[in-house]
Design brief:
heterodimer; A: 227 residues; mainly alpha; 70% helix; globular; B: 275 residues
């Protein structure tokens, strides 16, 4: 397992990187150290300095480094949620888009509001598709039944709207997300029926113009019937 | 490689929502910048209104020599009209698009070739071949004064592949371009030859291009593999360094156009992992 000195050195390498290539390599090294530590069930939490460092990289307009940083943040799990939400620069579109992807991958309910807004309003289809997946995979196991109902109602409602998105890839992601969310809707009265109804619409070639979306929705329906 | 985005979006009017009637009104106007956007919009929406095709054909006929630097010039309208006619998908446009293949504006020839490919216009095969017949030294030669080639080879070759008329002379016309010095032309030739002959050695050419050091080339190979739907490419598509958005478009092509192994379910799972 990486020591805390090791993390100090890795963070320093990111801060001192003087080229796009060096930043990418340093980010990747830091992210993989976090991934190694994240796999230790009893290991110490990821150092906060490492997480805020990765969050700051999301705003650097370096896609390679941002991808690596998102991987590191997702590997760190719920510990990365607050640094992500607090480090969010509302004015920096690129940084917000990467943060949405990280939050979608982590699946923590504290990201719900941002994911809802991203699926509904973000101009980038790649951000909307990531948000859809995130909404389908929120971890609600630790919540009370009442809290679960609230979260699932909002996530399902956002996905129902996302099923009408103008971009095929977002509707595809909604079909995938519906498959993931449906088995977890037991606290929500009528939730299962609504999710399946949306999948039936996406599976209907007279309503859905992209054959690949229909195929994905049909796969979801078949798996839900006989998992 | 077809443009994966919206094509030439006018900067002033990007995404502005208008109605079909408004698009027709603008196309009837005399203002080229209004016509330009209207033509693009009708194509994007694949408008099926009975007035759409006659209006677009009229816009295509009103072309004139290019005037560089006068804002939105007439020929820009003609080019957008040609693109839109390909998307609207009405065979009545074929003769007018064929005439545009002889225009001196190579941008218009390119747009017309792509539209004829989208329309699957078998009547265009002989003309498309004729424009490529001079081979690497003629059609495929670089121009001294610009980065372009003598002919819009990529569009002409891809159109022949999309139209799909398998004749010896078509294959023989495209074949030399598999050795073109530019990787994007090689990609287009490999794509068309794989579509026409089913010979998997052309697929291998595309897989090699997925390892090309230039991102632009890897993107083109992704789009070309998607256009063919060659499912063997799944693992190479997964591995190549390019945006997930483009990999998803390519895999959609494998799902919708391809057959055999890997299965549709395997392909869909690969797409899920890229979301």
């Amino acid at each position: 397992m990486p020591s805390s000195d090791h993390f100090v050195a890795l963070i320093a390498a990111v801060e001192q990187a003087d080229s796009a290539g060096a930043l990418f390599e340093a980010t990747r090294a830091l992210a993989s150290a976090l991934a190694v530590q994240g796999k230790e069930p009893m290991g110490p939490p990821p150092p906060e300095g490492a997480l805020t460092c990765l969050v700051s990289i999301l705003g650097f307009n370096n896609p390679g480094a941002a991808v690596a940083a998102v991987d590191g943040l997702i590997a760190s799990g719920p510990a990365a949620v607050l640094p992500l939400l607090e480090g969010l620069d509302g004015q920096n579109y690129g940084a917000r888009a990467w943060a949405v992807r990280a939050l979608a991958g982590i699946g923590d309910v504290r990201g719900l509001e941002l994911l809802e807004a991203a699926l509904g309003d973000d101009i980038g289809p790649s951000v909307r598709r990531a948000a859809a997946i995130g909404l389908g995979t929120l971890d609600v196991a630790h919540l009370t039944a009442q809290e679960r109902r609230t979260v699932q109602e909002r996530a399902l409602g956002a996905l129902e709207c996302g099923a009408q998105d103008g971009e095929w890839v977002v509707r595809y992601a909604v079909a995938t997300a519906m498959e993931k969310i449906t088995p977890r809707l037991q606290d929500l009265e009528d939730g299962h029926r609504r999710a399946v109804a949306t999948l039936h619409r996406l599976a209907d070639a007279s309503e859905e113009e992209a054959p690949v979306v229909c195929l994905r929705a049909r796969l979801a329906l078949s798996r839900l019937v006989s998992p | 490689m077809p443009d994966p985005g919206g094509g030439d979006l006018p900067l002033t009017a990007a995404g502005e929502p208008i109605t079909e009637a408004e698009a027709h009104r603008r196309l009837r106007s005399e203002d080229p910048s209004l016509q330009y956007y209207a033509a693009w919009w009708l194509g994007k929406m694949r408008s099926q209104h009975p007035d759409t095709v006659p209006l677009l054909m009229e816009a295509l006929q009103h072309r004139q020599p290019r005037e560089v630097g006068v804002g939105v010039e007439r020929n820009a309208v003609a080019r957008n009209a040609a693109r839109a006619l390909g998307k609207v998908g009405d065979g009545r446009a074929v003769p007018e698009l064929l005439a545009a293949l002889a225009d001196e504006d190579d941008g218009l020839r390119e747009a017309a070739a792509r539209a004829l490919g989208e329309l699957g216009a078998e009547a265009a095969v002989a003309t498309l071949c004729a424009r490529l017949a001079s081979g690497l030294e003629g059609a495929g030669a670089s121009r001294p004064d610009s980065p372009k080639l003598q002919e819009p080879c990529e569009a002409l070759i891809e159109a022949l592949g999309d139209i799909g008329v398998v004749r010896e002379e078509v294959v023989a016309t495209i074949q030399p371009f598999i050795h073109h010095e530019r990787p994007l032309i090689r990609s287009a030739a490999a794509r068309a030859l794989l579509q026409l002959t089913g010979d998997e050695s052309f697929g291998e050419h595309l897989l090699q291009l997925l390892d090309h050091p230039q991102l632009q080339v890897r993107r083109a190979a992704l789009m070309d593999l998607g256009a063919v739907g060659w499912r063997v490419a799944l693992d190479s598509i997964r591995r190549t360094h390019a945006e997930n958005s483009l990999k998803l478009i390519a895999l959609r092509g494998l799902v919708e156009r391809g057959h055999g192994e890997p299965s549709t379910e395997t392909l869909l799972e690969a797409m899920d992992a890229l979301l």
